[in-house]
Amino acid sequence: MAPCEVSATVRATPATIWSSCFEPMKWESWDPDLRELKDVSGPCDSGTTCTFAMNNGQDIPAELIDVRKNECLTFRGKAFFGTVKFEGNVLYRKIPNEEAISRIDYTFRLHGMLGGAVNLFQRDEVVHGTQGGLDNMVRLSEEAQRLN
Length: 148
What we know:
By secondary structure, this protein is of the alpha+beta class. It has 3 helices and 7 strands; from the N terminus they run E-H-E-E-E-E-E-E-H-H. The protein has helices at residues 14-22, 115-121, 123-147; strands at residues 4-10, 34-38, 49-54, 59-68, 72-79, 84-94, 102-111. A 7-stranded antiparallel β-sheet has the order 1-7-6-5-4-3-2.
């Protein structure tokens, strides 16, 4: 199935986005479907593993890949015995010729044996969670930028 792709302009620098949304490994502050990150193996870096403790009670193992401070990160994991796979990518960059304005592109994709079916039948939830996550990233980043 096609990934859910959302974007926004944010009045914050990439460094502020990183420090307010990703570096603390408290992703429940921006992901509306996440209760907490558990069993975090290290800092926000490629190879770090954790468990997404979801609001619906599921615990889903995840891994961070392609993490580049102040630029992007990708996370991936598997649910339902590996039949549903997911991948999220957040790319954020400063808008040229603007002092403290950046763009965030957030893509979330379900795939695997049952991933397409879940995406089809729960598309509204996937879109709502992805857009809600982006909206929260913008809010947290702009609040942090104002304090700088």
